[in-house]
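Module 6 notes. Inverse folding takes a fixed backbone as the condition and produces residue identities as the prediction. Think of it as a translation problem where the source language is geometry and the target language is the twenty amino acids. Below is one complete input and output pair. Work through it position by position during the lab.
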C-alpha cells in the first residue's frame, strides 16, 4: 500500500493594520525624545493615538478605507488638547487626552462596529492617549511614570483633520497606507 505524501502550501500572512491619528504638536520634540529610549515602538512609528489597534484581517485596504470614511464623515475637524498622565496595567505610561476625548472615544467605538467588530477587545476600556513608555522589565514602570510627569504637565495641542491606516509589516517597519480626511 502506497503512502501519500502531504504537501502544505504556505499562505502569506494576513496584513496587520491599525487606524491612528498622527498629531503634529508644536512642542512634539519633547515627546519624540522621551519615547525614543522608553517605548519599544518609539523609533517604529511617530507619536499617535490608536483608534483601531493592530489587527490581522482579510479586509482589503479599499474595504477598510471605505469603512473608515463612512464612520468619520460625520465629524468636522476638531481640536485635541493632551495633558496629564495616563497609565495601564503597570506597563504603559502615556499622555492623556483632555479636550477631544469624547469625540475620539466615540470615533473609536463607531470604527469597531461592522467589519471590525470581531477585533474589539471589550476587556480593555478605551482611553485616547499617546504611549510614552512601556515597561518591559520589572521595576521600570515606576521610574518611567516619574520621568513622564515632567512631560505630561505640559499641554500639547492640535486639530484632528485626518486618520491614517498603517500596516505594521514587522516589529521594525510600519507603513502609511492611506489617509482618510474628516469632511464637514
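Target side of the pair, the amino acids:
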Amino acid at each position: 500500500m502506497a503512502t501519500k505524501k502531504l504537501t502544505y502550501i504556505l499562505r502569506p500572512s494576513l496584513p496587520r493594520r491599525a487606524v491612528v491619528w498622527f498629531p503634529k504638536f508644536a512642542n512634539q520634540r519633547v515627546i519624540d525624545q522621551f519615547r525614543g529610549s522608553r517605548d519599544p515602538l518609539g523609533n517604529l512609528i511617530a507619536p499617535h493615538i490608536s483608534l483601531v489597534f493592530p489587527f490581522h484581517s482579510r479586509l482589503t485596504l479599499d474595504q477598510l478605507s471605505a469603512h473608515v470614511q463612512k464612520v468619520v464623515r460625520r465629524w468636522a475637524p476638531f481640536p485635541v488638547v493632551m495633558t496629564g498622565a495616563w497609565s495601564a496595567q503597570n506597563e504603559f505610561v502615556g499622555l492623556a487626552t483632555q479636550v477631544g476625548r469624547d469625540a475620539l472615544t466615540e470615533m473609536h467605538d463607531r470604527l469597531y462596529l461592522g467589519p471590525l467588530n470581531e477585533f474589539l477587545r471589550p476587556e480593555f476600556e478605551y482611553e485616547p492617549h499617546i504611549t510614552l513608555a512601556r515597561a518591559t522589565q520589572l521595576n521600570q514602570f515606576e521610574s518611567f511614570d516619574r520621568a513622564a510627569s515632567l512631560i505630561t504637565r505640559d499641554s500639547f495641542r492640535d486639530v484632528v483633520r485626518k486618520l491614517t491606516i498603517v500596516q505594521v509589516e514587522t516589529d521594525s517597519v510600519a507603513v502609511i497606507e492611506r489617509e482618510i480626511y474628516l469632511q464637514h
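Reference fact for the lab report: The mean pLDDT is 91.
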